[in-house]
């Protein structure tokens, strides 16, 4: 299953194939995780923004505990399994996975217990958060084991099971959320906090469904995995103690870096309300609405584009580990450059595209309540998603190259920068402040990481320079055209339906995405810049679209 990476085309094809699976799984999952908000919000009625803010307050704390429970073990397992597979020592990878399962189960139990029984100590003075945290604690029991199993498959560059289980997990979660929200709010008319707690308990339901899908995949391919173990060298002997040491040594940096964006969100959660109470005379309900707009509403949408970066990161780690194992410095340099070009090719147009349709997109998901402010926050969040996505990718690259300590140090510098500017940013810019401090802090960390990678391994600078120039130019052109299309469509629909609601906004969004996407695809294929990413596939696309 794992072959030696010896040329750029092969590594690019593997990265593209893996990224395609992970991107599909991430996009579909994130889309489901965003689209549910429309009926969910309608059923919660006047409680919608408060319910969404409460959901976000609980989920941010849960996300941190979940990352602690997972402890970076899945990514560490993926990296080390790929390393041993490259040495044709598949048996060691299997033993590594089994030892990891024990650690994952223990961490899951410990973190779930702390989250459940310690909820009153970390509710930040909001008693409504306690039942939310306790309902989420159940998911922490299962998800570490599920994530570890995904990491094991990724070590074989098998991204399909991870992508499929991710989609199954999200589908089950959303269905349970919608079912309970409808029954509790529309039929039983219970307290809205209880309905939110069932929506968060859906994380456990989704995790169980995702784990079952992974088990089914393994059972169907069990003979293949056993055959690889039988036919491997089986000469390397690694003691159980050494296996645990490897897992822990690799996992600790993954905890910090994997929790990077979550840590920034927690900083926002525990500082925004305090600073805004000093800076303004807004009521608690208004502050909750503002928090929901930038930390939950906009974040839910931009994470669709950031998930593109996550897909690249997951694919890059085992490939880079193999190249490092084989001491192929030129291959490492090519792969790092390929990762960055692929990131630029996807992330820049996706972020600018979302910024261009922010107005109608915000109406589709969140209605017309404070529409102008919500749209502006989403526009700004879309731009900030670029440094967020870049951090996800290049921190994973550092981990794949065993530059863990250096990557953690750079992240801590970025975190310090955010903490230093957090107060003035929020005091003077309100809901935009946390986004700006996040963008600046992550940009500092990104610059330090890129400088380190260039010094140690080097980049293919000519390729990166051409890609950056053309992708930025085409993305900006696409952005401007999409803005004009959206404004034109708004005017036309405004005459027909005044004012127009979700259905009209959805139509405007689809038209904007369709035209903007076609323009970007045409320009990148026509200029041959797409060839850097897609290789020979570009020729087939040009023939299909009759582009010369």
UniProtKB/TrEMBL annotation:
<dbReference type="Pfam" id="PF01943">
    <property type="entry name" value="Polysacc_synt"/>
</dbReference>
<feature type="transmembrane region" description="Helical">
    <location>
        <begin position="59"/>
        <end position="78"/>
    </location>
</feature>
<feature type="transmembrane region" description="Helical">
    <location>
        <begin position="410"/>
        <end position="429"/>
    </location>
</feature>
<dbReference type="InterPro" id="IPR024923">
    <property type="entry name" value="PG_synth_SpoVB"/>
</dbReference>
<dbReference type="InterPro" id="IPR050833">
    <property type="entry name" value="Poly_Biosynth_Transport"/>
</dbReference>
<dbReference type="GO" id="GO:0005886">
    <property type="term" value="C:plasma membrane"/>
</dbReference>
<keyword id="KW-1003">Cell membrane</keyword>
<feature type="transmembrane region" description="Helical">
    <location>
        <begin position="336"/>
        <end position="357"/>
    </location>
</feature>
<feature type="transmembrane region" description="Helical">
    <location>
        <begin position="247"/>
        <end position="267"/>
    </location>
</feature>
<keyword id="KW-1133">Transmembrane helix</keyword>
<dbReference type="InterPro" id="IPR002797">
    <property type="entry name" value="Polysacc_synth"/>
</dbReference>
<feature type="transmembrane region" description="Helical">
    <location>
        <begin position="474"/>
        <end position="497"/>
    </location>
</feature>
<feature type="transmembrane region" description="Helical">
    <location>
        <begin position="435"/>
        <end position="453"/>
    </location>
</feature>
<protein>
    <submittedName>
        <fullName>Polysaccharide biosynthesis protein</fullName>
    </submittedName>
</protein>
<feature type="transmembrane region" description="Helical">
    <location>
        <begin position="503"/>
        <end position="523"/>
    </location>
</feature>
<feature type="transmembrane region" description="Helical">
    <location>
        <begin position="377"/>
        <end position="398"/>
    </location>
</feature>
<feature type="transmembrane region" description="Helical">
    <location>
        <begin position="99"/>
        <end position="119"/>
    </location>
</feature>
<keyword id="KW-0472">Membrane</keyword>
<feature type="transmembrane region" description="Helical">
    <location>
        <begin position="131"/>
        <end position="153"/>
    </location>
</feature>
<feature type="transmembrane region" description="Helical">
    <location>
        <begin position="174"/>
        <end position="193"/>
    </location>
</feature>
<keyword id="KW-0812">Transmembrane</keyword>
<feature type="transmembrane region" description="Helical">
    <location>
        <begin position="199"/>
        <end position="219"/>
    </location>
</feature>
<feature type="transmembrane region" description="Helical">
    <location>
        <begin position="301"/>
        <end position="324"/>
    </location>
</feature>
<feature type="transmembrane region" description="Helical">
    <location>
        <begin position="20"/>
        <end position="39"/>
    </location>
</feature>
């Amino acid at each position: 299953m794992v072959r030696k990476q010896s040329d750029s085309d092969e590594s690019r094809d593997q990265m593209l194939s893996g990224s395609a699976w992970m991107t599909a799984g991430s996009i579909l999952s994130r889309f489901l995780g965003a689209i549910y908000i429309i009926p969910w919000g309608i059923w919660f009625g006047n409680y919608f923004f408060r319910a969404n803010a409460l959901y976000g307050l609980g989920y941010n704390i849960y996300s941190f505990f979940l990352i602690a429970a997972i402890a970076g073990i899945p990514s560490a397992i993926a990296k080390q399994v790929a390393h041993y597979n490259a040495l044709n020592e598949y048996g060691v990878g299997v033993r590594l996975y089994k030892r990891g399962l024990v650690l994952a189960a223990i961490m899951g139990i410990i973190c779930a217990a702390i989250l459940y029984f310690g909820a009153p100590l970390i509710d930040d003075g909001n008693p409504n958060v306690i039942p939310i945290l306790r309902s989420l604690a159940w998911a922490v029991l299962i998800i570490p084991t599920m994530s570890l199993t995904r990491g094991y498959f990724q070590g074989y560059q098998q991204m399909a099971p991870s992508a499929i289980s991710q989609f199954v997990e999200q589908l089950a979660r959303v269905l349970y959320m919608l079912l309970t929200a409808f029954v509790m709010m529309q039929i039983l008319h219970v307290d809205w906090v209880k309905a939110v707690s069932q929506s968060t308990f859906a994380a456990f339901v989704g995790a169980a469904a995702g784990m079952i899908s992974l088990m089914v995949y393994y059972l169907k391919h069990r003979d293949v995995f056993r055959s690889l173990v039988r036919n491997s060298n089986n000469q390397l002997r690694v003691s159980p103690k050494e296996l645990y040491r490897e897992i822990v040594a690799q996992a600790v940096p993954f905890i910090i870096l994997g929790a990077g964006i979550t840590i920034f969100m927690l900083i926002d959660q525990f500082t925004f309300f305090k600073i805004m109470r000093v800076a303004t005379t807004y009521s608690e309900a208004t502050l909750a609405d503002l928090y929901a707009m930038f930390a939950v509403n906009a974040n839910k949408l931009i994470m669709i584009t950031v998930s593109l970066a996550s897909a690249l990161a997951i694919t890059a780690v085992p490939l880079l580990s193999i190249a490092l194992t084989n001491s192929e410095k030129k291959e490492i340099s090519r792969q790092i450059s390929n990762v960055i070009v692929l990131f630029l090719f996807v992330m820049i147009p996706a972020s600018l595209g979302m910024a261009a349709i922010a107005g109608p997109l915000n109406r589709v998901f969140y209605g017309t309540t404070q529409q102008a402010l919500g749209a502006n926050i989403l526009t700004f969040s879309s731009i900030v998603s670029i440094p967020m996505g870049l951090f996800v990718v290049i921190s994973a690259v550092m981990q794949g190259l065993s530059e863990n300590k250096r990557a953690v140090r750079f992240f801590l510098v970025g975190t310090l920068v955010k903490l230093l500017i957090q107060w003035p940013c929020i005091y003077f810019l309100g809901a935009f402040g946390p986004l700006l401090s996040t963008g600046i802090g992550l940009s500092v960390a990104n610059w330090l990481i890129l400088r380190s990678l260039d010094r140690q391994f080097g980049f293919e600078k000519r390729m990166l320079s051409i890609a950056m120039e053309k992708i930025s130019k085409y993305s900006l052109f696409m952005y401007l055209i999409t803005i004009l299309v959206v404004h034109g469509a708004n005017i036309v629909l405004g005459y027909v339906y005044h004012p127009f609601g979700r259905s009209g906004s959805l139509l405007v969004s689809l038209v904007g995405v369709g035209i903007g996407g076609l323009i970007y695809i045409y320009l990148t294929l026509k200029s041959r810049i797409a060839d850097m990413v897609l290789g020979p596939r570009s020729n087939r696309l040009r023939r299909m679209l009759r582009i010369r």
